[in-house]
C-alpha cells in the first residue's frame, strides 16, 4: 500500500467518524479536538513502549498488537490533520527527511 492509499483510507475513515459525530453529538471534531485525541494516543503509545522496553511493569497482554494499534491511530490522526491544515505530506515529508539528513551529515563531519 502506498502513501496515497493510506491517505485516502484515513480521510474516508475520518469522514465516517464526522457523520457519526454530527448525528450523535451535533458537531464534528475540530482541529483542536483532533490534537487532543492525538495527545491521548501518543500517551498510550508511550506507556506501551515503556512497558515493552522494561521501563514499566508488564501489565498488558498482546503488547505488540497494542503498540501496532496505537502507531496506526497516531498515523491516522497525523494524516487527517495534514488534510485539515493543508499540508501535503507527500511533498513535505521528503523535503524534511532531506533537511534532517543534511543536519546529521553536517554534525558528523564537524565532530
Please explain how this structure is put together.
The protein is mainly α and 111 residues long. The chain has a single domain, classed as MazG-like (Helix Hairpins). The protein contains four helices and no strands. Helix 1 (3-25) packs across helix 3 (63-84) and helix 2 runs antiparallel to helix 3 (63-84). The longest helix has 23 residues, at 3-25. The radius of gyration is 18 Å and the shape is globular. The mean pLDDT is 96.
What is the averaged pLDDT score?
96
* Helix count from the secondary structure assignment: 4
Return the structural class: mainly alpha
Oligomer: single chain
User: What does the radius of gyration come to?
Assistant: 18 Å
**β-strand amount:** under 5%
How is the topology of this model organized?
Blueprint: H1 3-25, H2 31-52, H3 63-84, H4 89-109
Helix pairs in contact: 1-3, 2-3
Summarize the structure.
The protein is an all-alpha fold. The chain is globular and about 60 Å long. The protein has helices at 3-25, 31-52, 63-84, 89-109.
